[in-house]
């Protein structure tokens, strides 16, 4: 097992060093400048579109999930292990400087997130529950490369509903075991069984049930965790200036903890950042495409806001919890244990129980979000109901097994698969980015005219492969045209 873990670690590190990180950085910078820094310039629009009206069908029912529900589905996947255990791992390996690179890559990645989620909306398709789409769909319909879409879909299925869900389940199990002192051997088995049952109850209900659970759980747990973090920062407020100083000064490899070089610090910051906020990874477009909105750019903006919510709020509060409470990182443990120790040292043992509850609910919601990404891609490969049923059973089994598996091997395997998935998606969005830039111009032109933007494929007849967006009535639902000019 150790030999396998070493091989996976080496191969994953090579892939990230020589392929993923350079492509991620260069494309992110290209998207940033070509779009006029859309990820910063349109922040007010991100908040406006988050609560946008959901178009209805002829019977007055929502065409699909709302913009906010799509946001919570993607946030369910984003906000979880990566924000708590992942940030702890990044700091333990790369020191405070890794946080700087997580912030930097989140800002640059915001442009990539905008492009991929806009494309996900543009090339979405209808299904029995509303809409579905994502990278596999824009590879087939936008690039006319179904083979590429199938390869991506297979990698995503290995990455999210299998590897990442194992990791989420493993972290829940480790956190609850830690609350018992780590000495009760039956706890992981019980946790795995409970998680498997809860997961099956939700995922067999379809995307609308997943959206309902995510909409209820994610904002509440994220808010409680943020309040908890602010209390700890308040207790150690005198250390906060030193924390900010260490984040910026140690980002350049002068006082790193274990990483050894600036390259290692950037690497771990980028890896843990992408695992957490998923910008450019190709996962969030699967959630974004499920939303019923009147213009593809709206979900591009909403999902970019999701990157900021994840990294600049939730990940940052974890970093501050760890750094203000653990000034000496020389012998710090990696992962969730580092965050747990920081909480207990600041608030007492009761906070470990509260963290267990937060981790359970956030990681469980991540399991649901990750599952939905897999479902969308399973249906891309084969839409037969029996295939989806088998897939759901496999996901439930993976959740159970992940609760009792080795954490190191799961982390390193997830990193490697995530790198492959990111590369495929980055190539696709690089080739299709011209479509996203045209959609952005169309959106801004309509906003300047005082309209709530509505897109139909007749507005861009030169772009082939668009499956929905037939006409204004089908896009907006039965909404009077006069109402468009009043919703600004």
Automatic annotation (TrEMBL):
Q: How does it sit in the membrane?
A: Multi-pass membrane protein
Indicate the transmembrane segments per the record: 15-33, 147-166, 186-204, 216-237, 305-325, 353-373, 385-405, 417-440
- Give the highest taxon in the source lineage: Bacteria
Q: Which GO terms describe its cellular component?
A: plasma membrane
InterPro entries given for it? Na/Ala_symport (IPR001463)
The UniProt keywords, alphabetically, are: Cell membrane, Membrane, Symport, Transmembrane, Transmembrane helix, Transport
Can you provide one Gene Ontology molecular function annotated for this UniProt record? Answer: amino acid:sodium symporter activity
Where, subcellularly, is it found?
Cell membrane
Q: What family does the database annotate?
A: Belongs to the alanine or glycine:cation symporter (AGCS) (TC 2.A.25) family.
Mind telling me which PANTHER family this protein's record contains? AGSS FAMILY TRANSPORTER, SODIUM-ALANINE, AMINO-ACID CARRIER PROTEIN ALST
Protein name as it appears in the record: Alanine:cation symporter family protein
Q: Which organism is it from?
A: Microbacterium esteraromaticum
């Amino acid at each position: 097992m150790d030999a396998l873990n070493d091989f996976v670690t080496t191969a994953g590190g090579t892939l990230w060093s020589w392929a993923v990180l350079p492509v991620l950085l260069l494309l992110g910078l290209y998207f940033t400048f070509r779009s006029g820094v859309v990820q910063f310039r349109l922040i007010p629009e991100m908040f406006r579109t988050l609560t946008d009206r959901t178009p209805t069908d002829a019977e007055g029912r929502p065409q699909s999930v709302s913009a906010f529900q799509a946001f919570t589905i993607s946030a369910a996947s984003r906000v979880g292990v990566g924000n708590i255990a992942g940030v702890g791992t990044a700091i333990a390996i790369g020191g405070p400087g890794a946080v700087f690179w997580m912030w930097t890559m989140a800002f640059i990645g915001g442009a990539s997130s905008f492009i991929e989620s806009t494309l996900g909306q543009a090339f979405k398709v209808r299904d029995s529950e509303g809409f579905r789409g994502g990278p596999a769909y824009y590879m087939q319909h936008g690039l006319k490369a179904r083979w590429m879409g199938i390869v991506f879909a297979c990698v995503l299925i290995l990455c999210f509903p299998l590897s990442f869900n194992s990791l989420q389940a493993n972290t829940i199990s480790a956190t609850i075991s830690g609350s018992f002192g780590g000495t009760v051997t039956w706890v992981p088995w019980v946790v795995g069984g409970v998680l498997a049952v809860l997961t099956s109850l939700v995922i067999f209900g379809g995307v609308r049930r997943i959206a309902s659970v995510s909409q209820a759980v994610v904002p509440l747990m994220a808010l409680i965790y943020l309040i908890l973090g602010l209390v700890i920062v308040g207790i150690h407020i005198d250390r906060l200036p030193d924390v900010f100083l260490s984040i910026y000064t140690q980002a350049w490899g002068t006082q790193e903890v274990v990483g050894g070089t600036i390259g290692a610090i950037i690497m771990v910051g980028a890896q843990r950042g992408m695992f957490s906020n998923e910008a450019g990874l190709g996962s969030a477009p699967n959630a974004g495409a499920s939303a019923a909105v009147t213009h593809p750019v709206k979900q591009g903006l909403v999902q970019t806001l999701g990157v900021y919510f994840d990294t600049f709020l939730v990940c940052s509060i974890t970093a501050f919890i760890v750094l203000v409470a653990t000034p000496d990182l020389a012998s710090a443990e990696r992962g969730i244990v580092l965050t747990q120790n920081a909480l207990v040292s600041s608030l007492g043992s009761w906070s470990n129980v509260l963290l267990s509850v937060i981790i359970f609910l956030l990681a469980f919601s991540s399991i649901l979000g990750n599952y939905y990404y897999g479902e969308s891609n399973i249906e891309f490969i084969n839409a037969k109901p029996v295939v989806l049923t088998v897939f759901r059973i496999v996901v439930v089994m993976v959740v159970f097994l992940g609760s009792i598996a080795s954490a190191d091997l799961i982390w390193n395997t997830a990193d490697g698969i995530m790198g492959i998935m990111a590369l495929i998606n980055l190539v696709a969005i690089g080739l299709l980015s011209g479509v996203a830039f045209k959609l952005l111009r169309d959106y801004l032109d309509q906003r300047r005219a005082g309209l709530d933007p509505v897109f139909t494929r007749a507005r861009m007849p030169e772009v082939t492969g668009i499956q929905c967006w037939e006409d204004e009535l089908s896009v907006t639902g039965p909404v009077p045209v006069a109402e468009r000019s009043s919703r600004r």
